[in-house]
Amino acid sequence: QAQLVESGGGSVQTGGSLRLSCAASEYTSTAGCMGWFRQAPGKEREMVAQIETDGTILYADAFKGRATVSQDASKNMLWLQLDNLNTGDSATYFCTADLYCLGATAAIPYWGQGTQVAVSS
Prior knowledge:
The chain has one helix at about 25-30; strands at about 5, 10-15, 20-25, 35-40, 45-50, 55-60, 65-70, 75-80, 90-100, 110, 115-120. By secondary structure, it is mainly beta.
């Protein structure tokens, strides 16, 4: 059964860092594209980064230089390192799996339950 489980969220102060983890079931770990999205209250879900099976990483412009995605396919694990956080980064962060990257967000078939990040000033 497809399953993605995120962890690592929490509360940090402006300028701080967090490392989010995603444990993927074998089913979803064979997807062509793993990724991280986020959703703040009252806003639409937006991409943070996606990683293709060949290791190519796609970062949304807003996160370039502040987010680092890494993956260990042998352990079915995906990570997101977030640095220099600001209050605008407060959101629920989701791990995703899809056949291809850069498809429509609404069409992504597999989502984790999300992990909350709260950044205070």
